[in-house]
Amino acid sequence: MQARKDAGITQAELGLRIGQRQTFVSKVELGERRIDVAEFVEICRAIQVDPHALIRAGERAGR
Fold this sequence. Notes:
- By secondary structure, the protein is an all-alpha fold.
- The chain has a single domain, classed as 434 Repressor (Amino-terminal Domain).
- The chain has five helices and no strands.
- It has helices at 2-6, 11-18, 22-30, 37-46, 51-61.
- Helix 2 packs across helix 3 (22-30).
- The chain starts with a helix and ends with a helix.
């Protein structure tokens, strides 16, 4: 996840912040595990990114 990298946070650190293991973060980033909206918002808060802004950026990148 580019947003995590931009925040300077490792997968292990993000895992600690959201109460998950590093492998959970890795699987999410590789697309091997889907997350629901609540998990998405929790991750965004953990990396201090506005969820709406991240969605908008993803929409722009997909065009």
